[in-house]
């Protein structure tokens, strides 16, 4: 079995001298995370919290949109306007005698197994800012970390209302007015619209509306991929938890992660059939194959793969029941095959330093094609052709975006005279 290669540990504790120099009011001991209900965005915040050494010191708040009914067509609206319009529509329905759907405006609960929380507080900028101001002398500054379009207005309002008490980090590009944030952390492919290739793909009359509008300045931190939870501690823990199920499997172990089509990476049953043919061709070189689907995987895709491989003794397909083996797969796999649509899954796999094969990259367009190109140029991924010998390996410098982003946060805090009590 190949040794498990893990990323470097997160930033360690500060020395007593460093903490003393920051002053009693300059030590950050707490974090507010502003989420949007999507694990892909919220896990980036939690991953950064862990890399900063502040696990267990954060409170999760959420900006929620109304759900059900006509609301699925209103996601393009600013979240505050969406909520007001939803309220008006519901009142009209009530007064007109129209029965509102049971799911109307329902807030989907956050998965307990992912956060350890049974409920999440709705984010209120005024309340959080007041808390930051009122507790500053006793608790010190408040670090606010947010991710996702819907969190931008709330997070920036917190900063505006408690400027001297808050350090605000926004993950993912906030589109405009970057000076609202102390630090912006975003993948470098978000700046693809500024490249010559990107400019040729944008009609001239739309260019002023495509963000970013200017190159990154000193308070923008660029990463290769997405931040995530798969740090060294998490993978070592997963290696232990999943030892009995995965350690004794025949080698090499190939893990196949399947996401779902997006507007910039479209596919369907055609890709599933292509993947089946390729996997059949490499099965001879695999000890075992384990396949996992994401919540975005179309049913027609999963059904095709289940029909083909459910009776194959060499192939295991996780059916969504029981504990999610994703972290165990990251820890124990010898190689990965991943669909090109998922920046998060590719970022996690490329953190392990193990071979990562990509299927469907040729279907990606716009900045997602640029992301695929950057991974290939780093030697982190190769296209999956079905001609591979999975027992062969190659080396590359693993992605370490989350730890590197945490280092930049520490530097920005130090420039303000603050430090972290981790």
Can I get a quick summary?
InterPro entries: Elm1-like. The chain is built from 16 helices and 15 strands.
Characterise the protein shown here.
The protein is built from 16 helices and 15 strands. It has helices spanning about 15-20, 40-50, 80-95, 110-115, 125-135, 135-140, 150-160, 195-200, 230-240, 245, 270-280, 300-310, 325-330, 345-350, 365-375, 400-415, and strands at about 25-30, 30-35, 60, 120, 140-145, 165-170, 185, 220-225, 255-260, 290-295, 315, 335-340, 355-360, 380-385, 420. The strands form 3 sheets. The protein has a 7-stranded parallel beta sheet, sandwiched between helices. α7 links the parallel β5 and β6. The longest helix has 18 residues, at about 80-95. The two termini are about 35 Å apart. Residues about 10-20 and about 100-120 have low confidence and may be disordered.
Key traits:
2 domains; 15 strands; Rossmann fold; 422 residues; 16 helices; alpha/beta; 36% helix; seven-stranded parallel beta sheet
Number of strands: 15
Residue-averaged pLDDT? 87
CATH fold group of the largest domain: Rossmann fold
Strand order of the largest sheet: 4-3-2-5-6-7-8
CATH architecture of the largest domain: 3-Layer(aba) Sandwich
> What is the overall shape?
globular
- The assigned structural class equals alpha/beta
Q: Could you tell me how far the N terminus lies from the C terminus, measured between alpha carbons in angstroms?
A: 36 Å
Annotation field: number of helices? 16
InterPro entries: Elm1-like
Protein name: Mitochondrial fission protein ELM1
GO cellular component, one term: mitochondrial outer membrane
Pfam families: Mito_fiss_Elm1
